[in-house]
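Journal club prep, notes for RB
We'll compare a predicted complex against what the paper describes. Inputs for the zinc ion case:
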Amino acid sequence: MTLVLGIESSCDETAAALVDGDRRIVAQRIASQDAEHAPFGGVVPEIAARAHAERLAPMIEGVLADANVALGDLDAIAATAGPGLIGGVMVGLVSAKALAMASDVPLIAVNHLEGHALSPRLADAALDFPYALLLVSGGHCQILRVDGVGQYRRLATTIDDALGEAFDKTAKILGLGFPGGPAVERVAKEGDAKAVPLPRPMVGSGEPHFSFAGLKSAVLRAHESGQYKPEDIAASFQQAAIDCVTDRLRIALAQMEDCKTLVVAGGVAANASVRAALEDVAQAHAMRFTAPPPKLCTDNAAMIAWAGIERLALPDFIPDPLEISARPRWPL
Ligand code: KG4
Ligand code: ZN
């Protein structure tokens, strides 16, 4: 049975996981840095890199011990090589290189976005290519057509902020703390989504791209007006964001009519209201809908290990060279 170690360190989660070819997460550990970054209201790259450097090696040792596995038992070591905060990415990738070299195991440098893009296949064995993918995280907001491993066509992206970033900024404006997405979702449950008139940027545009900067500014103005309760702003923001996403998907899906499944991945896919709205979109297009469980939506190492397993299974697989560089930017 194929067994791959995955390492993730591109943002503020330090994570290691062992995943096998039967889609079993054999062991995993994850350490969030929320407490370190919370005083700053956002991720501080230097603090993130230091925290990864302190935690990653014992974490990998722990995951191997949890599963009673030796490095030599691995079929590959897969690590995020970008995109992300470069200091953290370097910590993970260099650790993977050292382990690969010491144990003579193949190295697989994984694009973090590919990890998110393939994560639904780890959770759902029935998910076949091609599929329509909404990838919504803190750094990215894209609609992609996924034709196979390594075969991604981007149909839409954001012209300014990512969707997760809009959730985080809304949380900051409302004083809900960090990380913002789950806080906005929680508070929105108590609010009235119709209470605050907010714009739906790009809705109606013939191209499926996103824009969230104007929505964020409108949230700020609504808050500063003193007229609205924070829970109503949160609920109205979340509904406006969902309306943008469903409208943009409608345009993009018209260009992917042969895709039978609508898939969502990335941190914002953990949001229950977003998932429910996407389920409706899929139903309206006679598509199946699938989303990984919330823990596989936010950053994790199991999805990186899984991307490694998918790459290993390609007929033309070749390991990545030990001199491969970490990349702060790396489009799919
Ligand atoms: O995929 P991810 O963990 O990291 C990146 O690759 O960016 O995504 C993190 C983003 C953050 O912006 C976070 O606020 C958002 O996902 N997020 C959520 C929820 N959980 C995480 N947004 C809305 N609702 C949630 N429940
Ligand atoms: Zn991510």
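Talking point for the session: The two ends are 29 Å apart (CA to CA).
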